[in-house]
């Protein structure tokens, strides 16, 4: 599909493209996303959810959950390789056994570890503007991530304070409870969307549960830190 190619080239050349003029549905959008990932030529290191918190949905004017794919090179965050990057705090889960049905996501051991995470999003569209379908096609703006030290998963750790700092100043303070009301639901929602698009979430995959606060611009040289109560810190 032409859109996958155009999005791939936009990322490589750091030149945003206009939003597609043709309408397409969500199922087609996930097909374009898959094609875009084939063009990247990398295996998956995990998946991510988007628009899981009210703050993010309001910021972007979008109302549904979206699933994106993570690849190993996204773990090498380098501001110079993006178009207009933004950064946001996330809860990261480590998948302990292959998830290919929603039931798998509910089984003990589906998730074995949890960590503070940071996600870099970088829309390949001009002005960071998109529809639900066009952002799905653009792999949900996925561009980079960083994960703090893993700690054993404890299902009671669901409503934890989040402190998001840039250059030593707090920019947002929130709670992981803002993620779907309870970030543990993210595992089930990710499974539901993965089943819908025909994707299995492999053992060892990273699952980014969605931003706990709105995103902030990521400037060259900025010191970004997320600290989540009990989970610890992650820095960029
Ligand atoms: C889409 C990605 C949103 C989140 O955590 O809500 C997202 C975007 O805002 O560009 O990853």
TrEMBL record:
Keywords recorded for this protein, A-Z: Lyase
Keyword Lyase appears in the UniProt entry: yes
Coiled-coil intervals: none
Signal sequence annotation: none
Classification lineage: Bacteria, Bacillati, Actinomycetota, Actinomycetes, Streptosporangiales
Name of the protein described by the UniProt record: 2-keto-4-pentenoate hydratase
Keyword Lyase tagged: yes
Entries under Pfam families matching the protein: FAA_hydrolase
Transmembrane spans: none
Species of provenance: Nonomuraea roseola
Domain of life: Bacteria
Domain Fumarylacetoacetase-like C-terminal: 75-234
């Amino acid at each position: 599909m032409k859109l996958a190619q155009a999005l791939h080239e936009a990322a490589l050349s750091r030149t945003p493209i206009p939003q597609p003029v043709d309408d397409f549905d969500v199922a087609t959008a996930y097909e374009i996303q898959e094609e875009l990932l084939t063009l990247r030529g990398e295996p998956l290191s995990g998946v991510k959810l988007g628009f899981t918190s009210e703050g993010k949905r309001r910021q972007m004017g979008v109302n549904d959950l979206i699933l994106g794919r993570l690849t190993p090179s996204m773990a090498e965050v380098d501001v110079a390789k993006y178009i207009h990057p933004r950064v946001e705090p996330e809860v990261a889960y480590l998948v302990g056994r292959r998830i290919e049905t929603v039931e798998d996501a509910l089984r003990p051991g589906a998730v074995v570890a949890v960590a503070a995470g940071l996600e870099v999003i970088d829309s390949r569209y001009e002005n960071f503007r998109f529809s639900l379908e066009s952002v799905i096609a653009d792999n949900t703006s996925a561009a980079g991530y960083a994960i703090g030290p893993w700690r054993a998963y404890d299902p009671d750790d669901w409503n934890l304070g989040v402190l998001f700092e840039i250059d030593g100043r707090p920019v947002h303070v929130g709670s992981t409870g803002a993620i779907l009301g309870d970030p543990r639901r993210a595992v089930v929602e990710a499974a539901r969307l993965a089943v819908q698009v025909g994707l299995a979430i492999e053992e060892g995959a990273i699952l980014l549960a969605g931003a706990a606060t709105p995103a902030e611009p990521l400037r060259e040289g900025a010191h970004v830190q997320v600290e989540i109560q009990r989970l610890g810190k992650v820095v960029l």
